[in-house]
Specification:
Blueprint (H helix, E strand, L loop, with lengths): L2 E4 L13 E5 L2 E4 L2 E4 L1 E10 L8 E9 L8 E8 L6 E6 L3 E8 L2 E10 L6 E9 L2 E8 L2 E7 L8 E8 L4 E9 L19
Antiparallel strand pairs: 1-15, 2-5, 3-4, 4-15, 5-14, 6-11, 6-15, 7-8, 7-14, 8-9, 9-10, 11-12, 12-13
Length: about 200
């Protein structure tokens, strides 16, 4: 099974360079972590040429968490499309986590109410399509928090990250991989993620 990762342990970089590809606006490396460069906009990049199948998952560690509403949100994305601003994301603000979809640049919340992520938490989003229905499951530290059926079907695409902030919230230790099989995890809040295969 294919997988990709990036720990961003290199010189400051603005914008984030290859193999990362811009989806919308700008992300940068600063002090070995990923920051957004715009407030009130979605700063999203995808890992280009990841070679993952449509059923894949992406995760990132919270290097600095949002502390108020002015710092907005951040988290991993899956099925980021090429040539259009469309993807699914699992992100955290200072109060809660949400699973959202962005279709042609418009963000819609699909489900919300998970706990807010804190420093060093790992946010993971898994997308699995079975019989034409895509199920999105969000995890914090491998524990299920949210699950929802996608409102609009996106196929293929790459994993990525999104941050809406130009302050301190940041991500680190990105990882993404294929998901074996075509059945989503049954949703039981607080259930731990099945072992990677």
């Amino acid at each position: 099974m294919a997988s990709v990762s990036d720990n961003f342990n290199r010189a400051n970089e603005n914008p984030l360079a290859s193999p990362w590809v811009q989806v919308e606006n700008t992300l940068e490396i600063f002090s070995s972590a990923i920051l957004g460069t715009g407030f009130g906009v979605h700063n999203c990049f995808r890992y280009g040429g990841a070679g993952l199948i449509g059923n894949h998952e992406a995760q990132a560690r919270i290097a600095s968490a949002p502390t108020d509403v002015n710092e907005r949100f951040l988290g991993p994305c899956v099925r980021c499309q090429s040539g259009v601003v469309s993807y699914y994301a699992f992100h955290s603000d200072s109060a809660q986590t949400k699973i959202v979809q962005v279709i042609a640049g418009t963000m819609t919340t699909l489900t919300s109410g998970g706990p807010a992520a804190v420093l060093n938490d790992v946010l993971r989003l898994r997308a699995v399509t079975n019989a034409g229905v895509t199920t999105l499951t969000g995890y914090i530290n491998d524990v299920q928090q949210l699950q929802v059926v996608a409102g609009t079907e996106l196929t293929g695409g790459d994993p990525g990250m999104v941050i809406d902030s130009n302050f301190t919230p940041s991500l680190d230790d990105f990882f993404a991989q294929d998901v074996a099989g075509a059945a989503p995890d049954p949703f039981i809040p607080g259930r731990r993620l099945r072992a990677r295969v």
